[in-house]
Every structure is written in structure tokens, then in C-alpha cells.
Specification:
The complex is a heterodimer of chains A (106) and B (122). Chain A contains no helices and eleven strands. In chain A, a hairpin with a 6-residue loop joins strand 4 and strand 5. Chain A is globular, with a radius of gyration of 13 Å. In chain A, 33% of the residues are buried. The mean pLDDT of chain A is 97. Chain B is mainly beta. Chain B contains no helices and eleven strands. Chain B is globular. The chains are: A mainly beta (106), B mainly beta (122).
């Protein structure tokens, strides 16, 4: 299985901040990467697929980039509703998730 | 609307098996694959396996290979995940999730079930 490594594990930030989360794959996955947001007790919500395509209905402050083995999720200006845990998922043949990044209020 | 409705919570003893169902509605079941993902209490998401009802092809995580089986019943638009030889560390919420596009391999998932809590305890 391809291993996905997210960093940081925890991120403290304030409303209005620009934040970036990184996801690295143990081997190349082209652009087959998705990002999810999860809140406690809820199922994950798809934010971005194919590394940089915004899912319908997702605010434009979310963006994704990368190709191959290194990817980033950026939130341009944090809103109160954005404090949650974020996961990357590779979908290159098989699939696997990163370990998650918890975004906390500073 | 498009939705996945999962079966209810289960309590199992170590060594037993559990079979979780995921009933799809609002779309053509055979056009999209279904992934199974679990989440232990306080832990991250773990991908377990995938199946397409179109032709029954499935993929599994190496971690679960041989212990998990995913199947579909096209007559009822239902997907199933069976996990055998349960251990206490299999205690988790199990999710089914639909691919966002019609593909021949796992894809990003845009529709998720509500989750099924499986507790393994003696």
C-alpha cells in the first residue's frame, strides 16, 4: 500500500489566517489525491479531488496543489467553520489516507 | 436525493464476524464504486477496500487482505462489508462511501453513509 504522511499533525491558527497542510506520498500518485474535512461525530466531507479541483459547493478559500508525491491544501482566510480535522486520500490504483491534521483555534 | 444508509450498531465478541450493509438510493448503483473506510475512537480514517457493482471487481488494503470481503447485491442496490476474526482493536465506526465518478478503481468519495459503530468486546 502507498503510505501517506501529513504534516503537521496539529495546527493552531486564528480566524483570518492563511494555513497550509502538506501531504506526501511514499511513491508517485500523479494527481490522484483528494482532501476531506471532518468534524466530530460526522462523516468526512470531500473538499478537493484530483489534487486541485474544488468540489461543488466548497468555498473558494480552499485550494489544493501538487503532483507526484507532494501535495498541499491551503485555506486562504480561516473562518470559524473551518476548525476541523483534514485528511488527504490517495486514489492511485488502491487507496489510503493520511493520518490527519487537526486545525485548532489559537 | 443520493444517499447511503447503513445498518445499525453491532456488538461482537472477539473471534466473531460482522457484516455491515450500505443501501444506496437516488442513483444508478452499478455506475459507481463503493469504498469502505473505518475510524477507531479518536483515530484517523483507514481505507479498507472497494468494489464496483458493475462487474464485481474489488480491491483491498494489504492490512485487511484475507480478513475482509466486500460484496454487492444489485437487486437491492446494497453493498456489504464482512470482517472476520474480530479483535478488540477492530472497534470502530465503519463507513461506506461512493466514488464521485464512474471508474474502474477507487476514487475520491463524495457521498458517505452515516457510519456503523462496531464494538468488539468479550
Amino acid at each position: 500500500d502507498i503510505q501517506m504522511t501529513q504534516s503537521p499533525s496539529t495546527l493552531s491558527a486564528s480566524v483570518g489566517d492563511r494555513v497550509t497542510i502538506t501531504c506526501r506520498a511514499s511513491q508517485t500518485i500523479s494527481f490522484w489525491l483528494a482532501w476531506y474535512q471532518q468534524k466530530p461525530g460526522k462523516a468526512p466531507k470531500l473538499l478537493i479531488y484530483k489534487a486541485s479541483t474544488l468540489e461543488s459547493g466548497v468555498p473558494s478559500r480552499f485550494s489544493g496543489s501538487g503532483w507526484g508525491t507532494e501535495f498541499t491544501l491551503t485555506i486562504s482566510s480561516l473562518q470559524p467553520d473551518d476548525f476541523a480535522t483534514y485528511y488527504c486520500q490517495q486514489c492511485s490504483g488502491n487507496s489510503s489516507f493520511g493520518q490527519g491534521t487537526k486545525l485548532e483555534i489559537k | 436525493q443520493v444517499q447511503l444508509v447503513q445498518s445499525g450498531a453491532e456488538v461482537k465478541k472477539p473471534g466473531a464476524s460482522v457484516k455491515v450493509s450500505c443501501k444506496a438510493s437516488g442513483y444508478t448503483f452499478t455506475s459507481y464504486g463503493i469504498s469502505w473506510v473505518r475510524q477507531a475512537p479518536g483515530q484517523g480514517l483507514e481505507w479498507m477496500g472497494w468494489i464496483t457493482a458493475y462487474n464485481g471487481i474489488s480491491y483491498y488494503s494489504e492490512k485487511f487482505q484475507g480478513r475482509v470481503t466486500v460484496t454487492t447485491d444489485t437487486s437491492t442496490s446494497t453493498a456489504y462489508m464482512e470482517l472476520r476474526s474480530l479483535r478488540s482493536d477492530d472497534t470502530a465506526v465503519y463507513y461506506c462511501a461512493r466514488d464521485r465518478t464512474s471508474t474502474s478503481a477507487p476514487d475520491a468519495c463524495d457521498i458517505w453513509g452515516q457510519g456503523t459503530m462496531v464494538t468488539v468486546s468479550s
